[in-house]
Write a structure and sequence with these properties.
Strand content: 15-25%
Oligomer: single chain
Radius of gyration: 15 Å
Shape: globular
Largest sheet: 6 strands, mixed
Strand order of the largest sheet: 1-6-5-2-4-3
Bound molecules: ligand AR6
Number of helices: 5
Distance between the termini: 13 Å
Length: 174
């Protein structure tokens, strides 16, 4: 079974086969991690993104990584947090994380790095997002040969702590 790692870092520096971008439905760049990925990848990324004609929330589309070390960028618009009663968990889980992992597998990626989707500008509470993210990734790894390694690249000590606590709560005894 593939392994999951929780690390502190900047996903634009990742050397994974693919990194995930917490995008919006237009796929034309934005703030947060999306802006950082576009700046690091260079303008060619936006040129390719324009050919994709957007992406629905919870779906995923793949581009090349251009100036990034990562070979591919998998773009997924996460759900905007509206209090939790509007299907946000389902969209974040079966749609975002799962769609990205399926696409990564399809392209033969052995390693995939994720940011914590929806937990910045889109306002998803970190602990609830961590539960959904870790459960979806662990389920996928236990039933698919690829990817062999998934990393959650957390951008702050606080985020890392929340993900570690969530992991320990659900999986530490496995
Ligand atoms: N590496 C890893 N994680 C990061 C980085 C980085 N370089 N920069 C920020 N994060 P956000 P969202 C974390 O707001 O909530 C954009 O405008 C950040 O601390 O980037 O899904 C898009 O175009 C947070 O925990 O994405 C959309 O319009 C997490 O990444 C909208 O924001 C996600 O924060 C998407 O909002």
């Amino acid at each position: 079974m593939g392994k999951l790692e929780l690390v502190l870092g900047d996903i634009t520096l990742s050397d994974a086969d693919a990194i995930v971008n917490a995008a919006n439905t237009r796929l034309l760049g934005g703030g947060g991690v999306d802006g950082a990925i576009h700046r690091a990848a260079g303008p060619e990324l936006l040129v390719e993104c324009r050919t994709l004609h957007g992406c629905e929330t919870g779906q995923a589309k793949l581009t090349k990584g251009y100036r990034l070390k990562a070979g591919y960028v998998i773009h997924t618009p996460g759900p905007v947090w509206r209090g939790g009663g509007c299907g946000e968990a389902e969209q974040l889980s079966s749609c975002c994380y799962r769609s990205c992992l399926e696409l990564a597998q399809q392209y033969g990626c052995r390693s995939v790095d994720f940011p914590s989707i929806s937990t910045g500008i889109f306002g998803y509470p970190m602990a609830q997002a961590a539960t959904v993210a870790l459960r979806t990734i662990m389920d996928f790894l236990s039933s698919h040969p690829l990817p062999e390694r998934v990393r959650m690249v957390l951008h702050s000590e606080d985020a890392l702590r929340v993900y570690q606590q969530t992991y320990n709560m659900w999986y530490a005894c496995d």
